[in-house]
Design a protein that fits this description.
By secondary structure, the protein is an alpha+beta fold. It contains three helices and four strands. The protein has a four-stranded antiparallel β-sheet with strand order 1-2-4-3. It is rod-shaped. It starts with 9 loop residues before the first helix and ends in an 18-residue tail after the last strand.
Length: about 210
């Protein structure tokens, strides 16, 4: 059976051509242009998110570099001593014994305080020294030892012929002998430390 019995007129051909163009255009928009645009927008959004993330990472890197520079500067400063990890009481005893040497002395370990991750070993100490230079050398040794230390309440008095700690009579060889008492605070940190029964609950103390 012959479906079309005549040729299309020019007008009909134009309409068909326009219709085909519209169909092709819609197909292109739906299946090419729209997915491409969507993919581009998604890529732009992902790029923006990555840029934000990269900015955050760069800021963290800058902060870490600053912290590393500060740490390098601190470690390079000979006047700044580190804080050992808790419990460094053995190291503290060695420092004191090495500095005091043959001097007559008395050491009392007082309360330990904890403030966040910082531990303070509080010590009272008295000793007898043959002269002021010996006292000064010991104080400098405490300030510059390998463990961060704070010296306070230093009191001194002349010795009149008797070493209270050893019972020895101080003769003419030590005319400038002195009895000295002071308070010490050695600083430790809980970073890398192991809690034990001697560690108190959280406390607050002066630096």
């Amino acid at each position: 059976m012959k479906i079309l019995s005549r040729d299309f007129t020019l007008f009909e051909k134009i309409l068909i051509a326009i219709l085909l163009l519209v169909i092709v255009g819609l197909a292109y928009y739906q299946f090419v242009d729209k997915p491409v645009r969507s993919a581009i927008e998604s890529a732009e959004a992902e790029k923006e998110a990555l840029n934000i993330e990269l900015s955050g990472i760069n800021a963290k890197i800058a902060e870490l570099e600053k912290m590393q520079n500060d740490l390098d500067r601190i470690l390079a400063d000979p006047t700044i001593n580190p804080m050992p990890s808790y419990n460094a009481i053995g190291e503290i005893r060695n420092v004191l014994n090495n500095l005091l040497g043959d001097l007559g002395y008395r050491i009392t370990f007082s309360n330990v305080t904890k403030d966040n991750d910082q531990i303070r070993q509080n010590i009272s100490m008295s000793f007898t020294a043959p002269d002021y230079d010996s006292v000064d050398a010991l104080l400098v040794g405490l300030e510059t030892n390998d463990i961060r230390c704070k010296i306070a309440d230093v009191k001194g008095s002349r010795v009149y012929g008797y070493n209270y700690f050893t019972g020895e009579v101080i003769g003419a060889d030590f005319p400038d002998a002195m009895n000295v008492s002071l308070s010490l605070t050695f600083y430790e940190t809980m970073h890398g430390g192991t809690p034990d029964a001697g560690l108190p609950a959280e406390t607050s103390a002066a630096n």
